[in-house]
Model the fold of this input.
Amino acid sequence: MATATDSVMDLEINIGISETHRKKIADELSKVLADSYMLYLKTHNFHWNVTGEHFHSLHEQFEEQYTELADAIDEIAERIRALGHKAPGSFKEFHQLTSIEEDTEKPKAMEMVRRLAVANEQVLRTARKALDPAKEADDEATIDLLTQRLHVHSKTAWMLRSHLE
Done:
């Protein structure tokens, strides 16, 4: 038990989840964070560069999506920190962890929509994998966070796919 003379660095994390479980959860959440950040970049890129007859509606839709992602990224990173681990925060780390490819070209509007639908579905798959260690550890806070992400990305992917029908 920490005393008043112990440094903050010596304070043991005691949130009812073992270090082993916290590490597994943080590792999986780091992948969700990296995928979410890459999706944020892709969505923001497409927001800036969309053109054509669907410009206005897609420009606004992409803005709503990247704004929501910005908040989510912060929540995911803060959850990793609450578990006692460092959240990845550099492009190098995200590049190593992500399963979403960066977009450097400027596709046509409906191809942007398709790519964003695919990327949202990838975040869903990554988040589903992260649920396993959270469930194993009875980490309700992480389960709740991931459940919210599953809902958002499922709805976003559906809305994007609807443009393509």
